[in-house]
Fold these 2 entries.
Entry 1:
Amino acid sequence: MSRKAQTVHTDPAAIERIQERIEQLPGGAHVSLLMEDGEEIEGIVVVRPSAQLFFGPDGKEGTNARVRLSQPAMYQPESVANTDVWLDRIVLIRRLDPEEQPAPAPGH
């Protein structure tokens, strides 16, 4: 993957928002992402994203992250698609699968 991004962030608040989104995107989660342009993207998180350093169009270095979603084809497995999504473009993350419940404490 390229080390270039449309947008990079150096502001601590923007980087914190990216980190919060990372926490909401564990590997294997089935999610629907509402993007800032109104598009909705649905898929399975291939692996939890991580914040990385990228270079913006102006050559300045900053932080961003992207998540790879797998969009499985239920009846045509050969047409599985992967989509990479920049976390700073996500407005809302909605889990479509039940989140894993913690195991009960021993003795309960």
Entry 2:
Amino acid sequence: MKTLGLAIVLFFLSINLAYAQHAAPAAPRSETSAGSPIDDAAQEQLLQQAMAQIKAGMNADAINGPLAQVIHTYETAYAHSKRQVYCAETLTEALFYSGIASSNHQGSVVLSKPDWAMAYYLRGYAYGSMGDLVHAEASLKQALALSPSNSQFLSELGNVYENEKNWSSALDTFQSADGAAEFAPPEQKITLRCHALRGQGYVLVELHKFDEAVQKYNACLSISPGDQRSIGELDYVRGLQAKAGK
């Protein structure tokens, strides 16, 4: 099962939680349906616990333990909400979601912590690591229902489509992930864009569109010179082109 590398997931999670604590969008604190605030620190601690379990290969324990707790907390809190709920990491992302809801004449609330969406994402990642593509896809789509322009979530869904050999959906999703990187925290944008571009390159190789694949890997190198994965993939694609007589 091809997924976003665990080291990268760990990096993004730590950055996401830190960013949410120090530079979260100006939105109301998460609240339960009873009006009492959700203990954000407790949810983040559970997410860290889940990450440690996933890192140790205890995917089922993470799914059925801390991730289930976080998901239950938020699903219970917003079960009867009449407004569309979003999770955003940055102010730009929060304003974008508010604009979507407004254009649809729909009430919305944008949570200033990404924990709920992150729990679905990590559950999808854990399912993917176990080879359960059906549940991985379903959980990632739940994460994207809350954070539809999250590049990290989109790329992981693209990886699932790759493993399903659903090349069309994979390519479309990686393209969306590339565009969505603009909403990410500044320190993540290049890494997220490169992951999305390499994902497109991989799919284009599978479709035997070698010239287009080369363009995607070069696009990554233009913003991240020395990216070893893109360099390695370029060498591989050029070898395929040579065999094809191009």
